[in-house]
Amino acid sequence: MYGLKTLVRPTTCLTRGFRRHITQISDDTITDMLVSKTLTSNKTNDDYIRCTIFDQQGNIRIQGKDIKRSEFLKSNNLVARDLRKISKTNTPNSASYINLEVVPSIVTRSSGILLNLLNIRAMIKPDMVVLFDNPTSTAEGPAGAGLNESYTHGTLLENMRKGLGNQAESSQLPYEFRALETILNHVVEELSSEMKLHTTSLKNLLDGLEDSIDSHRLRYLLIQSKKMTQFLRKATLVRDSLDEVLDNDDVLNSLYLNEKRFNSNHEEVELLLEAYYVTMDEIVQKVQNLIAQTKSTNEIVNIILDSNRNEIMLLGLKFGVGMLSMAVALYAAAVYGMNLENFIEETDFGFPVVIAGSFLLLFIYLRVSVHGLRKISKVTMTGNFKNDKMYK
């Protein structure tokens, strides 16, 4: 028996150690597989660019096709850093999602113009326009956000088709300027629609606060204020990007792709950008005024709530003073009603005297307390320095 036990115990220890070793190897293998799968997935997403290409007549030549990044960079004479912002993935989290980490920009290269305005990422060439699609726009994020982005992208495609194909009315503008104007017009329309939505919601909310102030309206006011602040930042970034281009003559000259310009001979594109800059500045000014009005309303609401809270506290103090004054009168009555000899009950005027004295004490204490409450509740802008002993 002892020999059998000595043989079984080492076997059991070896089995447990072997299982522990196998478990550790399995965990390490699973971890390596997950890491390699993640790296492979990221590499696959980074190696391809999904885009839609318009030709010179405004027709869609390629729609939603995945192109290798290396081939695209080589064919367009670009480097990898040029597409760092253009092809950055934006995952929508709301219907009006905009990735504010990527600053709007208009960059010129020898082969074309790279634009990153709101959710529009494009490259304008002398004879074509490349719109970069978001490959994760429909796979991730809420369904409403994906539908909204799909509708916006479809509207942009339709506007590009009309703007690039309509050469009769815009024959005086080069191809690159018609594409640039179409994109800027789409950006302005999107911002104007979003501004109208926020303005209508805030005005209805402010009108409702004039009738009654409740917690639901105040909470909704806070949410709308945050949305307006984000929208203001978004519109300001677009306006500033246009301002930077207008301040740089070299960039304005490089916007001419078909006919190169030099010095300050860039009146066409300058007038085009100035028109949209004025429109963007008008949107920013309207939003700033609405935010200022919202802040003023919020401050007024806070003042009203503070005043009501102070009145409620003062009313509670008044009730407390009244109850304390009655307690003084009841104390006198309780002392008079004790079973002790005080020789007052033997007289005919004892009861009226006690009653009169109790009411007199009640009145005196109430008068002194009310006077003290009035003195405390009287608030002035300069303070009651004249009656303070420290300033005499």
Automatic annotation (TrEMBL):
Instruction: Give the transmembrane ranges.
Output: 315-337, 349-368
Q: Which InterPro entries match?
A: MRS2-like
Q: Name one GO molecular function term.
A: magnesium ion transmembrane transporter activity
Per UniProt, the keywords (alphabetical) are: Ion transport, Magnesium, Membrane, Mitochondrion, Mitochondrion inner membrane, Transit peptide, Transmembrane, Transmembrane helix, Transport
Sorted alphabetically, which Pfam families does this protein's record hold? MRS2-like (PF22099)
Q: Does the keyword Cytoplasm apply?
A: no
Share what the entry says about its subunit structure, partners included: Forms homooligomers. Interacts with MRS2.
Q: Which family does it belong to?
A: Belongs to the CorA metal ion transporter (MIT) (TC 1.A.35) family.
State the name under which the record lists this protein: Magnesium transporter
